[in-house]
Amino acid sequence: DPNILFKEYLDTDGTAVQRELEQLTLGIYIIKVEGGDATTPPTDVGIVIEGVEVLHDLGDVTSACALLMGVIYALNLSYPKELKTFFEVLQKLFLQLDAGRLSTKVQMLKNKLYQ
Predict the structure, then answer these.
(1) What is the Cα–Cα distance from 10 to 92, expressed in whole angstroms?
(2) Rounded Cα distance, 84 and 90, in Å
């Protein structure tokens, strides 16, 4: 479920957003302009770990995902249980780090992708 990792908010009430972000263990937040369409860039994209905003104004979600992997490695964090497979795919299939040891789920995905 992408809603576990990615949290979208409208740029209306900063205090309500801040309270919700303080409850996150690990996530990427996206703050969008109210009334904007799908092509309107977000006003802010950032990373939250243990309720603390560690990076902000990242520009886009792709950069946030790449930087989140770097933060996880730099701080030697464990992957959250509900996102373990997602991060394993990023780490082992896309970044080719420890790519020889795949879980069964990731091996099945790799086989489907490379057919």
Answers:
(1) 34
(2) 10
CA distance linking residue 26 with residue 1, whole number of Å = 14
Residues 12 and 20 sit within 8 Å (Cβ to Cβ)? no
Structure tokens, 101 = 């040891």
Per-residue pLDDT of the chain (115 residues; tens, 9 = 90+): 888 899 998 877 667 788 888 888 899 999 988 777 777 888 899 999 999 999 999 989 999 999 999 999 888 888 888 888 888 998 888 888 888 888 899 999 989 988 8
66/21 Cα distance (integer angstroms)? 20
Placement of tokens 């789920």 in the chain: 105
The whole-model pTM stands at: 0.81
For residues 106 and 85, give the distance between their C-alpha atoms in angstroms, rounded to a whole number. 7
